[in-house]
Amino acid sequence: MSTASSRALALSLGANLGIALAKFAVAAFTGSASLLTEAVHSTADCGNQVLLFLGMQQAQKPPTPRHPLGRGQAAFVASFLVALLLFSVGGIYSVVEGIHKIRHPELPHHLGWAVGLLLFALVLEGISMAGAMRAAKPEQGRRSLLRYMRESSATELVVVLAEDAAALLGLTIALIAVILVWTTGNPVWDGLGSLLIGLLLIAVALFVGTEVTSLLLNEAPPLAMRARIRAFVREDPEVEQVLSLIAVVIGSERLMVSLQVQFKNQPDGDALVETINALEKRLRGAFPQIQHLFVEPDRGKA
User: Fold this and answer.
1) Counting runs of H as helices and runs of E as strands, what totals does the chain give?
2) For position 72, which CATH number holds?
3) 280 — phi, psi (to 5°)?
């Protein structure tokens, strides 16, 4: 697993663990529904990061006869489970709790503690988000953050970024809800805050689940990446034309590529084999994310 991804996961886990414990304590002290749902959210995030770490470890295992392409998609499976947890544990619980508090409002107390905790949690989540963005920056390049999250196969980073963004928005919603309860004396704001946090978590879970499902269904890498591979092969002095290119994402920053190529006339079969081997070596050097490469010589249509 990449050092950057591991560091981002560890930072996020440490932040969420500390925040979760503090939220549960202050939620019990104040009786705030928004804080309680935020505590559940942070606890779910801790479980999510453990799942992602286990998935990344599985993805590093070498190919076996039973898994000839390796287990790179284990990270995708872990990310999909994270989306399910966000939806069920975080999102649905928060929505149900929010509706209950709106229908049966209870005025929280000692809200100054809640405001202080939420401000502290915002700082920690901001640090975690900054760490994840630094880890993603080399691959993100000039792409927008949303485009990177939609195109990247490094699902562990995508999930951490999505969780941190949801956490920052959720904490902001909770802070606004607590301040409104504090200033107006109306406890309905607390339930409404919990409801909005739940809807936010469900939206993030659907986004992550949709993107990871596409990867599990053998998604191709971005069009720009495929175009660069095709152009690289076409520039080879022994290549007449690239007849077809199939590329599939098989793990975090891992590709399987199949090429059908028309080569220039070779003296014999041995020369053709050497030409193919040389092309494969250059391709792997230029695109280290290619883990499995298949080059088939063929003739173009007459």
Assistant:
1) 10, 3
2) 1.20.1510.10
3) -60, -40
